[in-house]
């Protein structure tokens, strides 16, 4: 399994080659670039060229995470800014604006050798219904037509809304016959899902076990981070280093090992933890040790 990390750990800062160097010193062989204009300005040709030169000079796989903020919100970004880009918004003009912003980020693949892009469908509170299914298929069709010539695969990520559950994402892909669309299993999001109760025919499963089962062998990428689970006093997507929350990482490691094709593992860690470069390198290696992998 490729050992990677998201630049989300540096989200409050402008992304520079020096920060990418710090990630590779920790052992990363894959980097997911988080598309936020204050961090990676994908609309700035100079910023795109700078990252393109770095990736072409280093033996590191590149992937992209779609933007979650519009350009207006991004200019006033803080760690309390809520995502606003919604590809399946009820308002058609809002959906079109969201699609255009994601396409602007995808255009950076003309220079940066991104292999994939992680896609979010919906925001917190979005409901699963026929309209959501249709709008999801329309969004994927448009983005797929735009990204495929650039050599990018779209990866749908499980979220904590009704639309982007693993089971519903699989249904969207099947209904749209999107054979070349993959999945990104986010462990932190899955850990916030209420466990399914035990039945006569089936044992109880937590959210992570159910996500692995629903996605099956179409998992292309993993977002690896921890939290304190779905306790009433918590329920937060904290993006902690593995081992700092309630996830059973031994179980996760076994499920990863059982996949037919090893996915890319991306540590997606909170940017407000206040760690310095050396601490990030140390935590990176410790995280992979928990997953039974020695960081390179």
From TrEMBL:
Keywords: Isomerase. Signal peptide: none annotated. One of its GO terms (molecular function) is isomerase activity. The keyword Glycoprotein does not apply. SUPFAM superfamilies: Xylose isomerase-like. It comes from the Bacteria. Pfam families: AP_endonuc_2. Transmembrane segments: none annotated. Residues 23-272 form the Xylose isomerase-like TIM barrel domain. InterPro entries: IolE/XylAMocC-like, Xyl_isomerase-like_sf, Xyl_isomerase-like_TIM-brl. This is Xylose isomerase domain-containing protein TIM barrel. It comes from Granulicella mallensis (strain ATCC BAA-1857 / DSM 23137 / MP5ACTX8).
